[in-house]
Amino acid sequence: MSKFWSPLVRELEPYVPGEQPKDKKYIKLNTNENPYPPSPKAIEAMKQAINEDLRLYPDPNSSDLLNALARAYHLQPNQVFVGNGSDEVLAFTFATFFDPAKEVLFPDITYSFYKVYANFYGITPRLIPLDDDFKIDVAAYKGEHGGIIMPNPNAPTANVLPLSDIRKLVEQNPNQVVVIDEAYIDFGAESATSLVSEYDNLLVIHTLSKSRSLAGIRVGFAFGSPELIDGLNRTKNSFNSYTIDRVALAGAVAAIEDVDYFNETRQKVIATRERVSAELQKLGFKCTQSAANFVFVTHPEHDANLLLKQLREQGILVRYFAAPRINQYLRISIGTDEEMDLLVAALAKLVSIHST
Amino acid sequence: MSKFWSPLVRELEPYVPGEQPKDKKYIKLNTNENPYPPSPKAIEAMKQAINEDLRLYPDPNSSDLLNALARAYHLQPNQVFVGNGSDEVLAFTFATFFDPAKEVLFPDITYSFYKVYANFYGITPRLIPLDDDFKIDVAAYKGEHGGIIMPNPNAPTANVLPLSDIRKLVEQNPNQVVVIDEAYIDFGAESATSLVSEYDNLLVIHTLSKSRSLAGIRVGFAFGSPELIDGLNRTKNSFNSYTIDRVALAGAVAAIEDVDYFNETRQKVIATRERVSAELQKLGFKCTQSAANFVFVTHPEHDANLLLKQLREQGILVRYFAAPRINQYLRISIGTDEEMDLLVAALAKLVSIHST
């Protein structure tokens, strides 16, 4: 604690991301990265962008990327916002739509950065409990409040809400913004982007970090009505005129346009997830129904935190959250088939050793 | 105005950056970019970074870049903070060190984003007037307040404060953070980075956008005592875990390490500035004493806003601020010698036409 810190900063409880260790080569199943490389077309576009024009600022409006996203999602460019990773888009979202005088609603078990953002902007969260199967009950999200945010699929539970439930959420809260954080949507769930032109209070947030294999270049985006997008731009332009660099812009446009590669790699991830879920269940693990690029698993006889440490010793990183209700679960990102075979073999050994 | 915007966003007056036109090729002297390309070593390092590892998140702590900066500026890594352009570093600085209950002090004529940041965080600015020669009087920056920020050299006036004045500022305000925004320091002024280990309340902010010719990749940094840097990290980690992408990190490290190229290009800019200043004075322009990569000029007989428009018609962009005291001035970035010869020729014609 320093006397030079503002009252705000003294109260912050910053987010802690999954580790990016450098000490040795791990099988990295802890931060939901994609095991497949970015689109070769994106790689090529970024290489082309490495030239002497890097002396110039990027386009502050990211027009080329807005246009590419609008085309890809059948929207208008004024229904699209882009930022330096979906975390930045989320940070701007909290500032833009959530009134500190009212509570913002999100699930008790969800992306743990939401609480951090709320704290940063002085907004009080009201946590709505998931049911015993970690399902979201949309009926509970209404009444007097300042807005709603939730991931779909939810993280780290991997559960998904059908589009009909999203529609219900948006319709039963016409005076508040409903934010659906679809970071994992491309791995098997139906996107609410199809509802964006229908409702002025729906904001849908996506990222290039998961299904487009581009966590390394930091690009996220939001889809919403022009008035919501306009609000996000007001915030962004009060914070940083140029949030996305020239190389990232070039890579993002090419990645969005390479639909074949996108479909091929996400289908591979989905197939691996289904296979591995079945194998983990054979080992006695209980898995939530996942529509994401990770599984969320627990074993009735084995302590999750102990398994985490044992896997780490064998060079395999997974994620553990020391939080109520989920402290016997592990979140395991879907890697390549080879990586997942090693994971399953390691877990098979660990649970059989302990069972004997 | 939308009913969905938070009270904060309704009150914002966002910053408007200099234009990045796409309609045709201009001589672009309006956003203080460097006319010389980035270091060839930085270009090479970025090309190397375009590979399949872009599927992975970057290092959230940017350790390699902190280490490179610490080595280059003879500091420790825990005295260095990095962000997505110095604008993001400034945004975090306002949140981290300035208490909304107290006024923050900065010059009445300065980087116009400061007012926007203050507004964004609910901080009241107290503007301290420059004297008639646009000089900063450091004696006026003391008493009861919540912090100080100023560019050195100042923008858009280009005037510089000597290091002895910075020392005075820091010493006469031991209980507040003094932020020196040195975006333009490498073009002929003495940096306060040499004072960072001496004072716990001094924060010095730099950018790769000007003297390192890398506006296109968005990297800025701050030097300060470990407790100031720790505060900035708390803010950053409450906003976005991964603010700098893998390509930008690689380019930034290589650019910082290529000292020869850095010195060669900044000396070229300085030489051109000195030559052009003399030529503009021969045309009747009054120039402030510049230690930056731009000049700030006025002509006793010619309206600045009219000159701006006439230059634009001829394909030359410069910057004009419709603000009190400086609305008869133009800010002209230093381009290549060829570009500046065209600028001087255009202005020579414009001022002689009007004088006849």
Write the layout of secondary structure elements.
The structure is a homodimer of 356-residue chains.
Chain A: H1 7-11, E1 27-28, H2 40-49, H3 63-73, E2 80-83, H4 86-97, E3 104-107, H5 113-120, E4 125-128, E5 148-151, H6 163-171, E6 178-181, E7 202-207, E8 220-223, H7 226-236, H8 246-257, H9 259-282, E9 286-287, E10 294-298, H10 304-313, E11 316-317, E12 329-333, H11 337-355
Parallel strand pairs in A: 1-11, 3-4, 5-6, 6-7
Antiparallel strand pairs in A: 2-8, 7-8, 9-10, 10-12
Q: Would you write up a description of this structure?
A:
- The structure is a homodimer of 356-residue chains.
- Chain A has 356 residues and is of the alpha/beta class.
- Chain A folds into two domains: 7-37 and 260-355, Aspartate Aminotransferase, domain 1; 40-258, Aspartate Aminotransferase, domain 2 (3-Layer(aba) Sandwich), CATH 3.40.640.10.
- Helix content of chain A is 37%, strand content 13%.
- The first copy, chain A, contains eleven helices and twelve strands.
- Chain A has helices spanning 7-11, 40-49, 63-73, 86-97, 113-120, 163-171, 226-236, 246-257, 259-282, 304-313, 337-355, and strands at residues 27-28, 80-83, 104-107, 125-128, 148-151, 178-181, 202-207, 220-223, 286-287, 294-298, 316-317, 329-333.
- In chain A, the strands form four sheets. A five-stranded mixed beta sheet of chain A has the order 2-8-7-6-5, sandwiched between helices. Chain A has a three-stranded antiparallel beta sheet with strand order 9-10-12.
- In chain A, strand 3, helix 5 (113-120) and strand 4 form a beta-alpha-beta unit.
- In chain A, helix 4 packs across helix 7.
- Chains A and B meet through helix 1, helix 2, helix 4, helix 5 and helix 7 of A and helix 1, helix 2, helix 4, helix 5 and helix 7 of B.
